[in-house]
Amino acid sequence: MAATFALYRYSMLQNDLLLQAARGEQVKRPPVWLMRQAGRILPEYRAIRDRLKDFKELVTTPHLAAEVTLQPVELLGVDAAIIFSDILVIPEAMGLPYEMVEKRGPWLATPIRSEQDLQKIHLANVDSDLAYVAEAIRLAKRELRQRVPLIGFAGAPFTIFAYMTEGSGSKTFSKAKQVLYQQPALAHQLLQMITASTIAYLKMQIAAGVDIVQIFDSWAGILSPTQYRVFSLPYLAQICDAITEVPLILFAKGAFFALEDFAQLPCQVIGLDWTIDPQTARRQTHYAKTLQGNLDPCALYADFDTIRKETRQMIAAFGPQRYIANLGHGVYPDTPPDHVRCFIDTVKNWA
Amino acid sequence: MAATFALYRYSMLQNDLLLQAARGEQVKRPPVWLMRQAGRILPEYRAIRDRLKDFKELVTTPHLAAEVTLQPVELLGVDAAIIFSDILVIPEAMGLPYEMVEKRGPWLATPIRSEQDLQKIHLANVDSDLAYVAEAIRLAKRELRQRVPLIGFAGAPFTIFAYMTEGSGSKTFSKAKQVLYQQPALAHQLLQMITASTIAYLKMQIAAGVDIVQIFDSWAGILSPTQYRVFSLPYLAQICDAITEVPLILFAKGAFFALEDFAQLPCQVIGLDWTIDPQTARRQTHYAKTLQGNLDPCALYADFDTIRKETRQMIAAFGPQRYIANLGHGVYPDTPPDHVRCFIDTVKNWA
Q: With contact defined as beta carbons under 8 Å apart, do A33 and A340 qualify?
């Protein structure tokens, strides 16, 4: 039933290049979108954001979240929208609220460091506590009028764990890693709670209308390969096993050492950061996955000719099939929109 | 002549395990030292540091720099001392002073972003402007009384470039990378000036008495493999070619993609961060180099049994020959000294 429904839904999209590429189907050109495309690069985004009290007001106000979700489709011409939200809505729904401190990043006042701390949180009740995300998805989906697919997303369990135990961003996440080394059983309990909450959250997003989901393991790169296999991969595998309704993109920044493991997961797409050589990635994933990425975000600071050259070299290196063009990280806020458009148009003109 | 002199000097050391391992000679056990071993992990260091105005006073006062250089030899029992200093003394000697801002890291007030900025700096006159480092080395060498070798060091040209153009530390170094993409010719000019200054600086350190040098390419991991080959490797090669008097250790954090390139450089030792699998590193460096590293610094938060187990697994994975035990990054300031000693003693008890 799920498959039939999905097929029906996909078939209504005017541009479903992203889903075709994710499913491994032949495409006329690679699809293109950008991580953080709905955000500060667009003056139209900043105009909305500046009217509000804070970042969270934008995340929790469905019609505004939907509006900024659509902006890059209309203003940049990308082949997909991604719902505007934040990965830290999951800790909040588990009882650990976050703040987004200007210029300093996320802040969680009472990080989890003990069994007692663990007692204070709970599995996310996504239907009640994250209803605003479902509503934003429904609104965005309606306003998209089937032009392009809508991407849902969540943080990977280890990345969410890192914020919940560290209490903030960090260069080293040494407090989070201290929990892994000193209290591995506690770490696994918390990771399992995050995983269950995340699966429920992604299922809710799919029910609300997203066509594909991406998992962001933003802090994969702070773990050793051994620890990654113990504290991240098993939970990613649970998510991949559970999400059968739509394709899944796994983006793990800095996890160059895990590509062969990712190839074994039942996910459709593997996202790559810019340190990964395209041909090495093809080989290490046994030519069995669609790959996404991975232009250095800083390449968009270059002149138009260089952007075109780098973009075309990237597509040639990956090959235009089983491939989704993107950056290797979220677009940096000070990137000129014209340069972003140059990147997008170069992909769209690939023939 | 240089080789004879070096041989004479080495032969006087009571413990020259580090140099034996670096030269690829058979050792009775692997040598061990820690990046940032002279620093905040030791209360004895903090006692000296707290008496001073700032970090730079310690760096520029030879008898104090020498004193903290010796502390880990006496208090922890490591197989080598590393001269206490900072990689940013090179930009300063080139005319771009730095400050070390408490809890925020390095700050360079007038970063290099244009040809005009480049006119304001010059090649380092190491003999006059970095005489305090030579003096600290002479004092440390004398006080070491040939117990263990003394390591000299410098930043890799790209890493120094990153600070000189960004003006501070950064998660993305996007301003530094902007220079690479927008003004590659300017970047190469600056990199060449840094390289020439660094070679002169290392030669001065060797003349003052260091037995081996390490190059820190701390920000290697922010570059794509292609950019690394253009903007870092050629300058590392110049340094490796120029330093023939003593062995050279190259530590490039995040440069997993460059190991095969490093294997081609005329350096003796390659340092590895904790994301690199030991056997993969052996294979990618064609079993032709001594390897150094690479325990996750956070592993030292674990209990003694875990530290022993992880350390022994690491040595077994690298093999005890052509190997220098170390962490995969500088030791974190909040690591208990007893845990550091447990790591060191486990290596020393290897048999």
A: no
